[in-house]
Write a structure and sequence with these properties.
alpha+beta; Uridine Diphospho-n-acetylenolpyruvylglucosamine Reductase, domain 2; Uridine Diphospho-n-acetylenolpyruvylglucosamine Reductase, domain 3; Enolase-like, domain 1; 3 domains; five-stranded antiparallel beta sheet; globular
Length: about 290
């Protein structure tokens, strides 16, 4: 039996913001796949919930006239990986979305909930990091836009202020046009397990050189991270197998994986290099480049 003291179920964003402003102690529930687990384990006794499940204005995926892609935070992972816009312009996000649990989870879990849960293992996070996604956050006083790379504050912690609700993920055309991406998730089991480690790469190749390269890791530090040192090292260098190995090694300059029962620090560092190398070779091939002699 869940220990829920009260649940509010607004049908508009304005109503939700009014309720939340008056009751800042409320716990927001979106798809419920994370909150319900916490309730089941007794971590949220006598909790008061604010359900945003009925806020249809926070659902859907839109392609704007300037090429910007907007994703409502209540959009489920099933809706994302089946969406024509996503598969045409940013298929790496579809790839990450379909790796999220099983069908039952994907049908309910929302991208906004996945982000706001603050989990370092969130499947959407590394992909959104390499896409330079921005987050639209609102409260009763207005709107602020925050780069997702600045949103995470620590394990299970994000920078949402009192009364704020994340409404949309924004991806600009300049951050995906001409880019090829690959997401790789490694877990202890092949089915419906959280990531032990995940890698997202996004790159643009011209004259067999990286003119843009972005690498992000999950479960490799207290928060999802970008491997900025490896990215800078790769810029405008001729692609060879040795370069790929060097880039993969330099991802460790930003990473700080921990030791746990699911995988040791040394093992995770090995995975970071192996999976990054594999992902880089994939995007080079997709871009028409060559990494082998």
């Amino acid at each position: 039996m869940f220990s829920i003291k009260k649940i509010y179920q607004p049908i508009t964003l304005a109503e939700a913001l009014e309720i939340y402003t008056s009751n800042p102690q409320l716990k927001i529930i979106a798809g419920g796949t994370d909150v319900l687990i916490s309730l089941h384990h007794g971590k949220l006794d006598d909790v008061e919930l604010l359900s945003i499940k009925n806020l249809t204005e926070l659902t859907g995926i839109n392609y704007l006239t300037d090429g910007t892609i907007e994703i409502g935070t209540m959009t489920t992972f099933t809706e994302i990986f089946r969406n024509e816009i996503i598969n045409k312009y940013i298929p790496i996000l579809a790839e990450a979305s379909v790796s999220m649990g099983g069908p039952q989870i994907r049908n309910n879990a929302t991208i906004g909930g996945n982000i706001c849960n603050g989990a370092v293992s969130a499947d959407s996070a590394p992909t959104l990091f390499v896409l330079n996604a921005d987050l639209r956050i609102v409260n009763n006083e207005g709107v602020r836009i925050v780069p997702i790379t600045e949103f995470y504050a620590g394990p299970g912690k994000v920078k949402l202020q009192s009364g704020e609700i994340l409404t949309h993920i924004i991806i600009k055309k300049a951050d995906y046009k001409g880019m090829y991406g690959k997401y790789i998730k490694f877990s202890n089991r092949k089915a419906m397990d959280i990531a032990m480690l995940s890698v997202a790469t996004l790159g643009k190749v011209k004259n067999n050189k990286f003119t843009d390269l972005r690498i992000a890791l999950g479960v490799s530090a207290p928060t999802p991270i970008r491997c900025t040192k490896a990215e800078s090292f790769a810029f405008n260098k001729t692609i060879k197998e040795e370069l790929i190995k060097q880039i993969s090694e330099k991802t460790l300059l930003n990473a700080n994986p921990r030791h746990s029962w699911r995988g040791s620090k040394v093992y995770r560092e090995h995975l970071i290099q192996v999976l990054t190398e594999r992902a880089l070779k994939e995007i080079i091939t997709m871009s028409g480049g060559k990494w082998h002699e």
